[in-house]
Amino acid sequence: MTLTFEPQPPVLAPTTDGKAFPVRRIFCIGRNYAAHAREMGRDPDREPPFFFTAWAETVVPDGSVIAYPQETANYHYEIELVVAIGRSGREVSTDDAMSLVYGYAVGLDMTRRDLQLVARDAGRPWDTGKNVEQSKPLGPIHPAAGIDASKGAITLTVNGDRKQTGDLSELIWSVPEVIAHVSRFYRLEPGDLIYTGTPAGVGAVVQGDVLVGAIAGLGELTVTIGPPAA
Questions:
Q1: Which of 21, 98, 160, 189 has a Cα-to-Cα distance from 177 of 20 to 30 A?
Q2: 52-91 per-residue burial string, b: 16 or more CB within 10 A, e: under 16
Q3: pLDDT by residue (tens digit) across 8-23?
Q4: DSSP β-ladder status, 161-167 and 111-112
């Protein structure tokens, strides 16, 4: 059978042990830090976290210049711990969830906030706000052995100014709880990424801004906001 066109190559995320991690799907956890839920006008005591999805092709590597996207005047950063899945699992328990983890990375969930809020207030999906080209920068994936993802500082600076500060211990749903929850709805497969949520302090960027995200034990992720794509 002849292809009508050549398929896009897989998205390959580098790992710290010199391998390439083929990205399959992205699951993003929303409002998983209480302070961020409140700054978005929501009550974390009454509204639990949830998740949405994004395309693998939104992932770009550390050091990227990402285009300021069209149709927005309010493009926001969100620093996040990313969990890389290395084994299949459906309806896993929190006790078994960590057996699915390949590793961890620093990630950004860049958001067209104006479009997201319009969709949210209208009760519509968030795709135009969240599932955006180059919107999921990802640092190198660190194999899980020896990494404690239950605690540790998570920060983000813009042009050297600290904007976000939190700790992984503040996650409303912990890493095993996130994995168990998502696996109730989808069979998790090797290559899946879970962006686990962002602490408070989100804000807008403009062209030329340099963002540096960091998580204790996982190093840094640096991206620059470039001009809109041609």
A1: 21
A2: bebbbebbbebebebbbbeebeebbbbbbbbbbbbeebee
A3: 999 999 999 999 999 9
A4: unpaired
